[in-house]
Amino acid sequence: MARPSNNFESSSLTVAFTPQIRQYLDDLTLKGTFGSSPSEAVRMIVNGAIENMLNNGALDRRKWIINDGKLVLATS
Q1: Residue spans of beta strands (DSSP E) within 1-76
Q2: Which residue among 2, 29, 65, 76 is the one 20 to 30 A from 22 at the CA level?
């Protein structure tokens, strides 16, 4: 299943993985449980890990607002 389009601007980030980790990412995509590409698998894994850290208190949840059609971090 395709993921929905982003409602907000995205930014790219380049990361490097060992061949072993890359193979695991390929395996996840072949199973179909983590998207259709290694990049999408990484996105889903990071999103899940951050959500978990927000829920267990390791990260503080931030407040976001829409300003002039752009998503920005609320300052107060």
Answers
A1: 64-67, 70-73
A2: 2
The total number of structural domains in the chain stands at 1
Residue 56: inside a domain, yes or no?
A: yes
| Cβ count within 10 A of residue 64 | 11
How far apart, in whole angstroms, are the C-alpha atoms of residue 18 and residue 37?
17
- Rounded CA-CA distance 52/5 in Å is 23
Q: Is residue 12 part of a domain?
A: no
Structural domain harbouring 57: 19-73
Q: Using CA atoms, how far apart are residues 65 and 16, in angstroms rounded to an integer?
A: 32
Q: Is residue 4 part of a domain?
A: no
pLDDT in tens, 38-72: 999 999 999 999 999 999 999 999 999 999 988 89
- Would you say 74 and 65 are in contact if contact means Cβ atoms under 8 Å apart? yes
